[in-house]
Amino acid sequence: MSGPAREITSEAVENWLVEQIAQRTLLPPAMVSVHLCFDEFDIDSADSLVITTALADWLGDEVDPRALVRHPTIRSLAGYLAGRRGQVTTGGTPVHG
After folding, report:
1. DSSP H/E element including 56
2. The pTM is what?
3. How do residues 53-93 score in pLDDT, each as one tens digit?
């Protein structure tokens, strides 16, 4: 999963997750609140696995399948993933500050 690094913002991850949840629940994207817990959308463990696998492909980085449990809302998961990506450079060296 290598390739050119691209900036992944919290907003971009939120938008991607909203689209995924909307597709799975057949809700219009405008009805998918980033503040609701994933289980409020009836996202089960199978859906979580599919979403995290697709998210990993989209990000070009591994995503723990338990991420939706540890970060139970779209907003919290997006913030975590965007922040995690901002902590390393393309060489994998941690950046402080």
Report:
1. helix 45-59
2. 0.79
3. 999 999 998 999 899 999 999 999 999 999 886 544 333 33
